[in-house]
Write a sequence for this structure.
């Protein structure tokens, strides 16, 4: 999954949680036992979802930071190889764009 997809997924999950909270607030006046029980269960589920989402975001940030550090270390350890790779990718992109 690429970064754009992950960002969109995270935004969508935040929206779902916010919408669920809004729904709970909108039904707060319903005093029936069944509605109260449903709100309690939804509140617990939303709390778990928020925690899981937060943990996932932190994990994703940590993995991205580690990948950036490894890439930086590789470039410092192999500067000429890195320049060659970047040059080859640049030529390839240039060829592909030139065909349009």
């Amino acid at each position: 999954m690429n970064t754009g997809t992950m960002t969109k997924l995270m935004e969508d999950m935040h929206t779902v949680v916010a919408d669920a909270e809004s729904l709970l607030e909108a039904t707060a006046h319903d005093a029936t036992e069944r509605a109260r029980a449903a709100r309690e269960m939804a509140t617990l589920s939303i709390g778990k979802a928020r925690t899981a989402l937060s943990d996932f975001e932190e994990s994703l940030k940590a993995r991205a930071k580690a990948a950036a550090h490894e890439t930086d270390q590789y470039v410092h350890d192999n500067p000429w190889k890195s320049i060659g790779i970047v040059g080859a990718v640049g030529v390839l992109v240039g060829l592909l764009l030139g065909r349009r």
In short: The mean pLDDT is 84. The longest helix spans residues 33-77.
